[in-house]
Fold this protein.
Amino acid sequence: MRYFIFFLFILIGSSAHAQHPDYIVSGPMLGHTELRSCKVWVEYKEAVKGVQVHFFEEANPSQRKTGKPLTGVNPYFNIVHYELNDLKPGTAYRYELVAADKRVIFAGGFRTQELWQWRKPAPDFSFLAGSCSYFNEAPYDRPGRPYGGDSTIFLTMAKEQASFMLWLGDNWYTREVDYYSAWGLHKRAATDRKLPILQPFWHAMPHYAIWDDHDYGWNDGDKSYPLKEASRAAFNSYWANPSSGMNGQGIYSKFSWNDVDVFLLDDRWYRSNDSMKDSVNGQPNPEKEMFGAEQLQWLKNALLQSNANGGISFRIIATGSQMLNPNSPYDCFRRFPKEYDELMQFLKDNRINGVVFMTGDRHHSEIIKVDRTGTYPLYDITSSPLTSGTHSFGGPEKDNPYRVVGVDKLQNYSRISFSGKGAERTMKIEYLGVKGEPLANWSVSLQQLSTPRTRN
Ligand SMILES: [Fe+2]
């Protein structure tokens, strides 16, 4: 009988997944989720007030708790961020949004991270990643062939049994009608967020994000963008990351999922213009920076902290622009040699192990490998585009010798999976198409990303 009630409950729970259209505009979207707390994001219709979130263990529906709402997070739209606290690790939960009139306007579920540290090997898991999602809006798009592709890719992704989604920038594309006003920046985020085809994905797993130029402002935007404060406010109200920059500057952050640390970098807030000269009098131009001194200091300390913490295996440094590609004709981190040299030296000197870069922006997917003398090679895993246009190759990238894997002229997302124990723990990258069809894959073990032991 208990099992019958349990299954009945699951059935009711899953059938009540759709949002009530009289109340909800977008979401709910799951945000940062760790061992004992979870963030839930929702946008309501303008007049809707006082919606509560109730949550309970899937196996114990009679014990309900109420989440903490954070309202007034957006100056234009009715967005609420909820914190669901006092959770148990490694536990499946259900939650309900309950309107002021007691009507249940959404029911969904999530799972907290496990407490495995000091107890057992890190659990195997996978997550999704991608960048460059353009949704067509004919009156404001450039004339001609629509730039946005097949959005059903998000229905495919919503069906994945992944732990979370990592949005690698250009998550929405601001246009001329958007990036000249604060309201416009918010409006673009709101317009894309509420698309029906995206809703199942928001419910399905936690979402983490960084930005790149198109969701920060105009094409190739830099630190001079006059509306960057408004853009940061839009980003922070539309995503539910663990934190956002330091001292009101930037959107960088970090989170851990099991034994993987993910560093979310901001490649726009402090960025010099791409056309600033890379070097002056044969030396790296000290004025040309992508991450800025404050953020780079933060990253170095966060990496040292991560390296010192036992139990972390892989360290993913996520940022919009490519990091390593020597043949990129565009805005790769290598074109910012002062910071590039500084970070590369730091990684080597401090023997930071398990580092891989994850990037977006390029409208193709590829893995770039760069060898280093005396230590393990670095890889840049680029994942792009989810829905925006693709391109044909030319110039130095045409047969790029640094490319280990490539997916060209196809919409795609990536699934990153971690399995195995100790030095044999492996990170597998799979690039998948609109219907989830496999396009390419590649694996690397922790051993292959470890500084060789030196003999004294
Ligand atoms: Fe970009």
